[in-house]
Amino acid sequence: MKALLVDDERLARNELRRLLENFPKINIVGEAANADEATQLIDELQPDLLFLDIQMPGKNGFELLQSLEGHVPEVIFTTAYDEYAIKAFEFNALDYLLKPVELHRLTEAVQRVEEEMHHQEAEKRQKEEGGGTKSLTENDQVFVKDGEKCWFVKLGKVRLFESMGNYVRLHFDDQKPLVLKSLNALEDRLDPKTYFRANRKHIINLSWIDKIEPWFSGGLLVTLRGGDRIEISRRQAIRFKKLLSL
User: Fold this and answer.
1) How far apart are CA 97 and CA 105, in angstroms?
2) Each residue of 208-239: pLDDT tens digit?
3) Cα-Cα-Cα-Cα dihedral of 106, 67, 48, 122, to 10°?
4) CA torsion through residues 173, 174, 179, 182, sign
5) 216, burial (CB in 10 Å: exposed 0-12, middle 13-18, buried 19+)
6) What is the DSSP letter of 199?
7) Same domain, yes or no: 86 and 161
8) Are residues 152 and 51 in the same domain?
9) 246: pLDDT confidence band, cut at 50, 70 and 90?
10) In the chain, what are the helix, strand and coil shares in percent, each to the nearest 5?
11) Containing domain of residue 15, as a range?
C-alpha cells in the first residue's frame, strides 16, 4: 500500500514515518510540505493513502482534496486541532488522528484502511467475475433495510444518494435510510443517464433537478425538488454541462 505524508512540519513527518515502521504493508513513497508539492506527487506517484495535515501554509488539507481532479487516494487526517473532525467526516476520511499521534490510534486507522482496500478489491473481483453487472435504472425497484424498517422503493423516487463514511444515505419521500455500501460501488451500478456524481459525497437524480446556479470556483449549485441544495464540483461541472447540452 503506497502512502504519501503531507505535513508542513518536518518533525511531525519524521515521527509519523517512525510510527509507520510498525506496519510493513505500508510503503511510504514520498513526503510533501504543502498542498502544491502534494498535488504534484499524487499525480506522479498515485498513492493509495494520504496522511494529511489540515493547517498548512497556502492551501489547507481540505482545499487540497477539493483541488484534486484525477487520482484521489484514501485519506487519514493528522492534525493538532479537534474542531475539524466533522468536516473531515464530510470528506469521507477513513480516520482523524490528533497530534501527537499515538500508536494504538494509528493501528486502528491502518486497520480501517486495510478493511476498505479489501472491500474495494472484493467489489472489483465480483464485478469482473460477473462479466459486468446490470445497471439499475429509475424503473428498477430495490429493497432497502435500515434497522427494523424496510422499504421496497422505485429508484426513480430516490432524488439523492449521500455518502456517510462506509454507508450511503438514500433520500426519498421523507425517508433517509442508510445502507452499508460505498458511494463508488453504488455509482458503478446506477444508470449514468439518470444518476450523476456531483462531488465526492453526492450522487443526484437528474430528473429531480429544479434549479441550477453558478457557484464558487467554476462549480454549480443544484437545487432538487424537495429543497436539497447540492454543489457540483468544478471538475464535475464540466461533465455536467456536456451531459445536459445538445
Assistant:
1) 7
2) 999 999 887 778 999 999 899 999 988 788 88
3) 100
4) positive
5) exposed
6) S
7) no
8) no
9) very low
10) 35, 30, 35
11) 2-129
